[in-house]
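Incident review: delayed structure delivery

Summary: a single-chain prediction request sat in the queue longer than the usual turnaround. Root cause was a stuck worker, restarted by the on-call engineer. No data loss occurred. The affected request and its eventual output are reproduced below so the record is complete for anyone auditing the incident later.

Affected input:
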Amino acid sequence: METLTAFGDSVLKGVIYEDEHYRVADSSFQKICEEYFGIVIENKARFGVTVTKGEAIFERNLDIIRESSGEYVILEFGGNDCDFNWKEVAERPDEGHLPMSTISDFVEAYTNIINAIKSLGKTPVLLSLPPIDSSRYFAHISKGISGDNIMRWMRYDKQYITNWHERYNIEIFKLAIANDVPIIDITSIFLERKNYSDYLCEDGIHPNGEGHKLIAAAIKDYVNRRNICFD
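Output delivered after worker restart:
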């Protein structure tokens, strides 16, 4: 049975948010894909990880990547990189604030991982980001802090959160093109739905169980259309 390795954040880990608690979904897209393709995914994704932290995790697992029987290494970063320290924003709404990873740092670290995977004779496969629900996410991040101040910092436009998140998603597609590596679009299958928020958790950022089914469907479609076979 072919073994693939994977690095990323809580979306790739399969984390969902229900009843104000985080847990790994019983049927995440990883588990669905493992069963469908008859493969094993050595999943090194971690909750809250940025691409810079992911680079460190990747470097600690070089032997596992070398020894894996599969050609592909799956990467999914960006959701935490584009995030802000909302507590600091709420406390100082009239100041400038940097995201967890600036665009330049995000691109540099992601490129480093891509190149390192290639040097190991493996093929990196990028996943795009699922969309987010700005209203739900704003309600989530403003719990216990000043939502009014966060709104002031965002110039009273919740859509800023979605737009900024999409800025990083676009960069992932650009990274795939610049580095000539495969990318699986898991964004469009959400946007094709009339109300994609139905496929997101209460926090507005993590796909729910039905969302994981959508992601698995997008991956299946990508693999099958390209006649990719796993040993």
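Verification: DSSP finds eleven helices and seven strands in the chain.
Action items: add queue-age alerting; document worker restart procedure.
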